[in-house]
Design brief:
three-stranded antiparallel beta sheet, 100 residues, Arc Repressor Mutant, subunit A
Length: 100
């Protein structure tokens, strides 16, 4: 079976679950519901996370379009992560999962 045929037959939910799987991604997503996130704050909030794993998860969520990354050019320079429009569309999905 060709690669294109495989991707056409895949369930969209499977792709979403694969994208959001990982140790920290669901927790990061949930924290983003409350507003913009800063890296240092996340390191303190996400128990057991280290800089590398957190940076990797944030990058993947930004690359997939679920989080927006904004560089705030104030002193001190910092970066904030917030839910993108694509990410906001997943809020009802996560709310349904919490009910289960």
């Amino acid at each position: 079976m060709e690669k294109n045929q495989k991707s056409e037959n895949r369930c969209p939910a499977e792709d979403l679950l694969k994208t959001l799987s990982g140790k920290w991604k669901p927790q990061l997503f949930k924290l983003a519901l409350d507003g913009p996130l800063r890296f240092g704050s996340l390191l303190r909030q996400v128990e057991g996370a280290n800089k590398q794993s957190l940076a990797t998860c944030l990058k993947e969520l930004v690359d997939e379009g679920y989080l927006d990354k904004v560089v705030i050019k104030e002193k001190p320079l910092h970066i904030e992560y917030s839910l993108s429009e694509k990410g906001k569309m997943l809020i009802p999905v996560f709310e349904q999962l919490e009910v289960l």
